[in-house]
Amino acid sequence: MERHDSTTSFRQASDRLEALWRPEIARLRIPSIGRSEAELLATLAAANGARRALELGTAIGYSSAYLATGMGPAGRVTAVDLNPERAAVARSLWTRAELGEQITLHEGDALALVSAMGTGYDLVFVDLLWEIRENALGRQLARAVADALRPGGTLVADNCGQDVPAARGLMDEVANGPFRSETLLPLGDGVFVAVKE
Ligand SMILES: C[S@@+](CC[C@H](N)C(=O)[O-])C[C@H]1O[C@@H](n2cnc3c(N)ncnc32)[C@H](O)[C@@H]1O
């Protein structure tokens, strides 16, 4: 499969990612984001000229494939998930998509690992708020993400339109933290987007 480059349109690249990932998402019953949300992620990454993205909650690598595609071949994704079986599938699919060199997956608890993942990220995608559940953990994650982002960097978080305590905690912490704008989009399970000061 070709990556997204000057000879491949974004539409073609997205079609190819869907062809690779959708059967596996269905077979393994992965709670992945939808295609519109994935394309939004890629577009936000492209819009802020992102070269470094951090993803917390990667599963079998669908959303991180879109992040890598949106950033182009120079972009790098640092991904975190605690499920080793899903991690193995993710690595295999990234190789098939010719995105393996762009994405590095760390296996473990994102809450424990996030501060060791470095700083200066252009974009951070949080997709484990439903799983971590607790309001205090959402708040903890928001503070860690604020530290990980560069000034002007973008936070994107899924599951924020649902009644998920961790999502409420993350959004409340962002509202009182070093962010200059935020919005909650009625897309999928509710996509929260905020830009760091
Ligand atoms: C909603 S899925 C991610 C879907 C993925 N972003 C996509 O759209 O294809 C959430 C993932 O978070 C992982 N997860 C849950 N709690 C975690 C934690 N504390 N640290 C790291 N990963 C976690 C789960 O193993 C699961 O694969």
What does this protein structure show overall?
The chain has 197 residues and is α/β, with parallel strands linked by helices. The protein has one domain (10-196): 3-Layer(aba) Sandwich (Rossmann fold), CATH 3.40.50. The chain has 8 helices and 7 strands, in the order ααβαβαβαβααβαββ. The chain has helices spanning 10-28, 35-47, 62-71, 84-96, 110-113, 129-132, 135-148, 165-175; strands spanning 52-56, 76-81, 103-107, 121-126, 149-157, 179-185, 191-196. Strands 3-2-1-4-5-7-6 form a 7-stranded mixed sheet, with helices on both faces. Helix 1 (10-28) packs antiparallel against helix 3, helix 2 (35-47) packs parallel to helix 3 and helix 7 crosses helix 8 (165-175). The structure holds S-adenosylmethionine.
Q: Supply Rg.
A: 15 Å
Note the overall shape: globular
Q: Please tally the helical runs, counting DSSP H or I stretches of 4 or more residues.
A: 8
Number of domains: 1
**Which stretches are low in confidence, meaning pLDDT under 50 for 5 or more residues running?**
none
CATH superfamily: Vaccinia Virus protein VP39
Say how many strands there are. Answer: 7
N- to C-terminal distance: 38 Å
* Strand percent estimate: 15-25%
